[in-house]
Design brief:
With 300 residues, this protein is an alpha/beta fold. It folds into 2 domains: 4-93, Rossmann fold, CATH 3.40.50; 106-299, Rossmann fold. The protein contains 6 helices and 15 strands. It has an 8-stranded mixed beta sheet with strand order 8-9-7-10-6-11-12-13, with helices on both faces. A 5-stranded mixed beta sheet has the order 2-1-3-4-5. A hairpin with a 6-residue loop joins strand 3 (45-48) and strand 4 (55-60).
């Protein structure tokens, strides 16, 4: 797979080196050089700040492509700058940037026949553990039709584009940049916002597209009570819990879930901490320890 070769040409040498280092750490699919503009001829993209000191100019280079240039504030995080580079490159070349080729995407589903069984907490925690262990992207998709899962992600979740728009583009072979539809949490888990009620055939189209993109290692589907979706999954976590654990975060969650054929998740009050209208799930407690054992079975 061809890498995008990016030349960083900034007035401040220290800033340029820091930016180059950050971009290189953000994606293995980018080759970075620090250079002046005369050395950038064999690169795909040039970043410079010669026109406006507070902004980066992103210029796509090459004789056989349409000219394309965009700008972005230098004060933004390197991950957002990378997204802008990829988007500008896509618009100029029609080449979708894939940081890593994955031949066999695994689909993991979590679901239950009853509400309040802890499906979202189990699915999100499993997704986070997989993302920390995997070299490829791990994407969490909520197919329950509820936005309750948002409480487990810190900060305000931006939804610039809807999943229904994404599915429309997939159906009509439109130009797609997946990063416009997902956000990345602090554990490296990518989340596809799916608050809309999606039909099973739309979910099938979405999952098929993600698998065929060849850059997703795992898709973790939070089915909630939508057990029909579980038929799409290679690995199924069927969750039974006789305690309804919804809205119990003030005292700590009493999670005593049984996952069919996988074992029991032990009683745990300490792994869930409420702050404001959010809930933080610890990856160091008993709950995560039991999920890690289940995840190990999935990856073998």
């Amino acid at each position: 797979m061809k890498k995008i070769k990016v030349a960083v040409c900034t007035k401040n040498e220290h800033y340029g080196k820091a930016l180059a280092k950050g971009l290189a750490e953000e994606s293995a699919g980018i080759e970075i050089i620090c250079a002046d503009s005369s050395d950038a001829d064999d690169c795909d993209v040039m970043l410079s700040d010669f026109k406006t000191p507070s902004e980066l100019q992103i210029s796509v280079l090459g004789d056989k492509i349409k000219e394309s240039e965009s700008t972005i504030s230098k004060s933004l995080p390197v991950g957002i700058i990378l997204k802008k580079i990829i988007k500008t490159y896509l618009e100029a070349t029609d080449h979708i940037f894939l940081p890593q080729m994955i031949e066999d995407t695994k689909i993991v589903g979590a679901g239950s026949n009853v509400g309040g069984a802890g499906v979202s907490t189990i699915a999100i925690t499993a997704g986070r553990i997989l993302s920390l262990q995997s070299e490829g992207k791990v994407i969490y998709i909520n197919c329950s039709g509820s936005e309750d899962y948002n409480i487990y992600f810190e900060g305000n979740i931006e939804k610039p584009r809807t999943v229904k728009e994404l599915i429309f583009r997939i159906k009509n072979s439109g130009k797609i940049l997946l990063d416009d539809y997902i956000f990345k949490d602090e554990f490296g888990l990518y989340v596809l916002n799916t608050a809309e009620d999606l039909r099973i055939d739309d979910i099938q189209i979405l999952v098929k597209y993600l698998c065929e993109s060849k850059h997703i290692a795992y898709i973790v589907i939070d089915a909630g009570k939508n057990m029909q979706v579980m038929n799409l999954c290679h690995n199924q976590l069927i969750i039974n819990n006789y305690n309804d654990v919804r809205c119990s975060y003030d005292e700590g969650v009493i999670n005593n879930s049984m996952i069919k054929d996988k074992g029991r998740i032990r009683y745990d009050r300490t792994s869930f901490v409420k702050f404001g209208n959010k809930v933080r799930i610890s990856l160091e407690g008993i709950f995560a320890e039991d999920i890690k054992d289940i995840v190990q079975d999935l990856v073998q």
